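Re: the request from the purification team.
They wanted to know what the chain is likely to look like in 3D before they choose a buffer screen. I agreed to run a prediction and write the result into the notebook, where they can find it.
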Amino acid sequence: MKKQLLTILMLITSFNCAFAYKKSSLDIVVEGQTRNMVVFTPDKTKKKMPLMIVTHGMNQNPEYQMENDKMYEMVDTAKFVLTYLRSDGNTWDTQGKKDQNFVLQTIDEMYAKYKIDRNRVYWTGFSMGSMLMYHSMPFVQDKIAAFAPTSGVQFMEQPWNNCGKPVNLIQCHAYADDVFVFDRYRIHDYVEHMAKMNESTTYIKLPDYSPWGGLKGDKEVWTNVNTGCVVELFAYHNGGHSPQHANSVEIWNFCKRFTLKDTKKAPNVKKVVLKTGEMEQPAKFDPDFHIYLCFGQSNMEGNAPIEYQDCEKVDPRFRMMAAVDMKRNNRTKGNWYVAYPPLCRENNGLTPADYFGRTMVEKLPKNIKVGVINVAVGGCSINLFDEDKAEAYIAGAADWLKGFCRAYDNNPFRRLVECAKEAQKVGVIKGILLHQGCTDNTQPDWPDRVNLVYTRLLKELGLQAKDCPLLIGELLQKDKGGICHAHNAVIARTPQTIPTAHVVSSADCSGAPDGLHFTAEGYRLLGKRYAEVMLSILNAK
C-alpha cells in the first residue's frame, strides 16, 4: 500500500512539474491610469530573458486568451517572460496611442522587475489585439524585434507605408476564419505588402505545411538576403477564428530567432565591393577546363549577404558563366568571368557554388581550371526544370517566382542546356550540383522527378552518367532550425533511384532566421562539402 501511495505521489509530482512556471497579476500605472496584466515567468528566473507580449481579442480577456493559446506552457523550458495585457473595457485603442503606450511601458516594467533582454522583445496578438499591433507597429519598431499577429489585420491602415524600417513578422490565419475572412480582408495581399516593404529578395511557398499540434496549411516565406528580415504567412485549413495552441509554438519558434541587435549597424565593417571578374574569353577547347552545372531553388540561387571575405582573393582559375545579363555587375549572358559573387543573378547572394569552386581549384593541380554555370529560381519546385510541366507551373506561380523565371525566358532548363552547350566548346562538363527540396518537402516521388531532369540533361548534352555525377545537398538540419529538415530522408534515398547521385551533408552548417536558408558561414561550409564529395569521386577514377 505504501509503494502504491508513493507511486501516486510521484505521478502527481511529475504532472505538476510538467509545466513549471510562476503566475502573477500585475498592476502598472500608464498615463495616470491603472492597467493590469497577467505575468508568467519560469520557475527560476535569470537576467536577460526574452519577453513575449500578448494582446487578446475584442470582448475577451487574458484568461480566455491563455486558456486557448497555452503559450504559458513554454515559459519554463524556453526561458522567457510572458505578459498577457488586459484591455481597458472590451476593446483596444486601434487608432490612438493609449494602448500603444501600455505596451511600451510594459517593456520598461518588465525590465525593472525581471531585467529582461530589451533586444529580444516580441509581440503577438489575436484578432483586435492584432489590429492594435499593426496600428502601433511604425511607432514601436525600435522596441520590438519580431511581430506575430494572428487572425486579424488593421484594415483601416497600411502599416507598410508608415514603417521606418523592415520588420520581422509572422501572420497566422485560418482559411475558414469567419470574422477576418481570408479573402474578403485580402489577408495574403496584406502580408505580401509587408514583404514588399522589406524589399524581400526571395520567396518560397511550402504547401501542406504541418507544424506542431496538427494544424495543416500553406506557409509562405519572404526574405531579404541583405538585411536578414523575414515575413511569413501561415494559412491553415483546420481552424476558425480562435487562438490556437499550435500557433503559439510556431510563433515562438519564429520570434526567438530575432534580436534588435541584428538591425543595428555594426561598427568597423569592411565595405563590400562587388567585382565584375572580367577576363579574356577562352578561344579554344581545353580538356583541363572542368565545368559544373548548378541548379535548384533559393539556396543554390544564393540567399546570404555577400561579405568582405567573399570578394577577395578569388583564384582566376575559378570562373563562372553568366546565365543572364547582370547589368549591375557589368556581365553579359554567355560570357565567362572570374567567379566573384554573385554567381546566379545580380541581386542574389552567396551560394554553395562559390566555395565549391574555390575549394576545387585549391585542391586540384594548378593546370586545372574550374567553371560553374548557375541557373536557379527561388521558391520553385523541381517541376520547374521539367520542360513538360514548366509552362503550366509558371502560369500558376506567385508573381515573385514569375519574375525570376522571366530572367530565363520562362524556361530555366533550356537556359541551362544552352549555356552548357556553349561551355562544352571550351571545356568538359564534369558534374552537376543540385540544391532543391524545400518546396517539394517530403514528397516521396521527388527522386523520380530529379532523375527525369538529370537524365534529360545528360541526353541533351551527350553525357554519360558515369562521367557526370549528380551531387545533391541536404537541406538545413533540424538542430539548426531547419523547417524542411524531414526532406533530408528523401534526399538520402535518391541514390537508390540514381546510382550516380551523391548526397552532400549539411551537418553543422549554420542557418538563417527563416529556417529555410543557410548563413554565409553555412554556405561556405556546404560549398566545401560539395567539393570534398566531388574530389573523392575524381580520386576514385
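For the purification team: The two ends are 73 Å apart (CA to CA).
Please add any questions underneath this entry.
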